[in-house]
Amino acid sequence: MFVSGLPEKQGLYDPANEHDNCGIGFVANIKNHKSHEIVRQGLTVLENLTHRGAAGADPLTGDGAGILIQLPHRFFQEECQILGINLPKEENYGVGTIFLPQEESARSACENAVVDLVKKEGQ
Asked: Which of 22, 28, 69, 109 is catalytic?
């Protein structure tokens, strides 16, 4: 059985509080060709998700939305070589973003914790 529309107001539920929810976009090259065009198209999808700040929500804060891309392994190889870092094979590492405090002592403590963990893991 398929029911269309929203339920009537009852208990703590009020259909007046319903709003657009998060969306998802997917852009890929089915032949696995890496291309900046795919990134450009992904950004266009992201800009057009209606729940985002860019389209009418709170325009002063970010919403944490982003895109997932393949690692630019060749770029990382070149940069790591300059820095004297031996980068493993493409399938043997990952990249992450860490948001650090702006206050210097708190930032330093967080950076040291990350360095200690990386050393502990043998990286």
From this structure: 22
